[in-house]
């Protein structure tokens, strides 16, 4: 019994130290998470749908979350959006039109000149990739509710020769 | 002389700073709990009668189910409105992706990544019958418990409670 007490007394300061360090790390991660979710976060984007604005093989962009909370996200902005087809995926596209505006787009630009006009309903936005030949966007899945917009991409951090505002 | 005054206030400022930091840490923890675990919501309006009150029900919403796995048909959920992005509404999931929803007159298949929501009060509810299927990404949480009013205190189940019009006044709890 006394051996057990001795053992505990030996380990107590180490356990206490371990706890306080873990708390410190937890508090830091908490602050990092709140910043990432509500202020600004870096995002790796890849794929051909936003050429030539964004690279095929991967760019790191800074995405800020404040504009979409205050409703200041609008046409010509590159936004990160939760995909309406796969809720676990996020896609990066450009807003072409907001609610109330009418959009005329080529249904299949590589195959024909047929175009279609749609009025964007209330509470929705129309997103398109800059590379209309290789982009799955509102032309396929329709206008996207504003509530799915996660943030606005405003600055490219990597690659270094692309460093600068979008 | 001004330096003396300054030195006099230092412990008070330090104390105020420490207390503010403690309050901030508490709110941070509360916010993380509200966003990722469980939160309260005040539900108002006629669209979810008889499950929820017209004048206001306080409900508990859990946020784990929507992240870990798909929501099933019949759950009452908190969802961001596709028409007004600042508004959050409470409706019931009637169909998930792949389900066929509708009645004898018109049927639709819910597309991939979407859900079909309807209010329990079919006569006074603005839901998927008006604005179509809603992307799964707009889900905010699952309503699992009613806290207020006391007569409705209890879990929120997957089936709409039977409330036949011929019965006496008030809801019948199954």
Automatic annotation (TrEMBL), chain A:
Residue span, Peptidase S26 domain: 26-105, 114-158
Family: Belongs to the peptidase S26 family. IMP1 subfamily.
Keywords attached to this entry: Hydrolase, Membrane, Mitochondrion, Mitochondrion inner membrane
Top-level taxon in the UniProt lineage: Eukaryota
Keyword Ubl conjugation: no
Organism: Coffea arabica (Arabian coffee)
A Pfam family assignment: Peptidase_S26
CDD domains: S26_SPase_I
Keyword Mitochondrion: yes
Protein name per its UniProtKB record: Mitochondrial ATP-independent inner membrane protease subunit 1a-like
InterPro entries associated with the record: LexA/Signal_pep-like_sf (IPR036286), Mito_IMP1_subunit (IPR052064), Pept_S26A_signal_pept_1 (IPR000223), Peptidase_S26 (IPR019533)
Subcellular location field: Mitochondrion inner membrane
From TrEMBL, chain B:
Name of a matching Pfam family: Peptidase_S26
InterPro entries on file: LexA/Signal_pep-like_sf, Mito_IMP1_subunit, Pept_S26A_signal_pept_1, Pept_S26A_signal_pept_1_CS, Peptidase_S26
Gene3D superfamilies: Umud Fragment, subunit A
Localization in the cell: Mitochondrion inner membrane
UniProt keyword list: Hydrolase, Membrane, Mitochondrion, Mitochondrion inner membrane
SUPFAM superfamilies attached to this UniProt entry: LexA/Signal peptidase
Main location class: mitochondrion
Domain Peptidase S26: start-end pairs: 31-103, 107-148
Record keyword Iron-sulfur present: no
NCBIfam families registered for this protein in UniProt: sigpep_I_bact
Family: Belongs to the peptidase S26 family. IMP1 subfamily.
Protein's recorded name: Mitochondrial ATP-independent inner membrane protease subunit 1a-like isoform X3
Provenance organism: Coffea arabica
């Amino acid at each position: 019994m006394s051996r057990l007490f001795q053992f505990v007394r030996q380990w107590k300061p180490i356990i206490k130290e371990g706890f306080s360090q873990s708390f410190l790390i937890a508090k830091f991660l908490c602050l990092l998470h709140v910043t990432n979710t509500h202020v600004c976060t870096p995002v790796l984007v890849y794929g051909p749908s936003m050429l030539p604005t964004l690279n095929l093989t991967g760019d790191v962009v800074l995405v800020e979350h404040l504009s979409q909370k205050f409703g200041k996200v609008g046409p010509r902005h590159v936004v990160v959006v939760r995909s309406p087809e796969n809720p676990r995926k996020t896609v990066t596209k450009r807003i072409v039109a907001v609610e109330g505006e009418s959009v005329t787009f080529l249904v299949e630009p590589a195959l024909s000149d047929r175009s279609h006009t749609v009025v964007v309903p209330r509470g929705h936005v129309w997103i398109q990739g800059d590379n209309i030949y290789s982009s799955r966007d509102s032309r396929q899945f329709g206008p996207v509710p504003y509530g799915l917009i996660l943030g606005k991409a405003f600055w490219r951090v990597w690659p270094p020769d692309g460093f600068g505002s979008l | 002389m001004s330096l003396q005054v300054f030195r006099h206030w230092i412990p008070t400022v330090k104390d105020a700073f420490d207390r503010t930091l403690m309050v901030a840490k508490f709110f941070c923890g509360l916010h993380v709990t509200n966003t990722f675990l469980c939160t309260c919501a005040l539900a108002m309006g006629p669209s979810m009668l008889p499950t929820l009150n017209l004048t206001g029900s306080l409900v508990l919403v859990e946020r784990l189910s929507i992240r870990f796995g798909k929501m099933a048909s019949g759950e009452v959920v908190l969802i961001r409105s596709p028409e007004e992005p600042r508004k959050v509404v409470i409706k019931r999931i009637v169909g998930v992706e792949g389900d066929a929803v509708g009645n004898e007159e018109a049927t639709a298949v819910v597309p991939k990544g979407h859900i079909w929501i309807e209010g329990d009060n079919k006569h006074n509810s603005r839901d998927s019958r008006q604005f179509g299927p809603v992307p799964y990404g707009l889900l905010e949480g699952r309503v699992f418990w009613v806290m207020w009013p006391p007569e409705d205190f209890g879990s929120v189940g997957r089936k709409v409670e039977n409330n036949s019009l011929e019965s006496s006044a008030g809801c019948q709890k199954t």
